[in-house]
Amino acid sequence: MPQPFEIDLNIDVDATPEEVWEAISTGPGMDSWFLGHIDIEPREGGAVRWTVGGFGQDATVKTWDPPNRIVTTTGEDPDGSRHSFDYSVTPREGGRSNVRYVHSGMLGGDWEAEYEAMGEGDPMYLFKLGQYLGHFKGRFGVSVDVFGPNVPDTDEVMSGFGRALGIDDVSIGDSVTLKPDGLPPIEGEVDARSVHFLGVISDDAIYRFIHGFTGQTMIGHHFFAEGSDQRRLEDDWRAWLERTFAGAAGASG
């Protein structure tokens, strides 16, 4: 039976309401910090299309009130699940803003595992919105979201990320040099770390290494350097994921 849920979060960001609005209500803005690719028709009743990997989901703009509030709602899936995403923006002093994010709806299927994953993932993505606005506002990034082998053990995946990047034991705020095999070294700072997420921010990119709640290894990067080639970056990082976890996937299967 589908179960109702609600996740209610808020964050202060270093951006005006108009700058926040561009990040949460346009396709290029959302692609600069959220997962996958989003197209948004800018009006109440407008169509929204979200795609990532081979998966796509449609939604409708239920509230369109620039630059104060946008609400989008998906249709109902066969298992009864549906999602509503509600962003409200309030101005703060000094050109800053508060963003309230309410994710609600119904969950079907393995709803307990999905809700637990959203309880960790939603705050991570809202934090990434703040990082985008604090470091790259006014710039649109190339979103690179790729999926690697399925490895059920979270500790194995997260320690595998650390070893493959050359940063086995790090904390938030640490300066690091990532050394992904087959890719150029990356100078940055650890800005996010939780059970299923490892995040690094550099002068021209946001990096996220993720273990999905279904066991899939993932990355969700955003590149802001001029001339970033999305197709090549996707191919390079997909190959890196495959190399990094090929043995683990075989052992787990």
Any overview of this molecule?
It contains 5 helices and 13 strands. It is of the alpha+beta class and 253 residues long. It has 2 domains: 133 residues, Alpha-D-Glucose-1,6-Bisphosphate, Chain A, domain 4, CATH 3.30.530.20; 111 residues, 2-Layer Sandwich (Alpha-D-Glucose-1,6-Bisphosphate, Chain A, domain 4), CATH 3.30.530.20. The strands form 2 sheets. The protein has a 7-stranded antiparallel β-sheet. Strands 8-13-12-11-10-9 form a 6-stranded antiparallel β-sheet. The radius of gyration is 18 Å and the shape is globular.
What integer is the average pLDDT? 95
Number of strands: 13
CATH level 4 superfamily of the largest domain: START domain
Q: Secondary-structure element sequence?
A: EHHEEEEEEHEHEEEEEH
Summarize the amount of helix as a percent range: 25-40%
Q: Write the CATH architecture name of the largest domain.
A: 2-Layer Sandwich
Q: How far apart are the first and last residues' alpha carbons, in Å?
A: 30 Å
Number of domains: 2
**Biggest sheet layout:** 7 strands, antiparallel
Primary descriptors:
253 residues; Alpha-D-Glucose-1,6-Bisphosphate, Chain A, domain 4; 5 helices
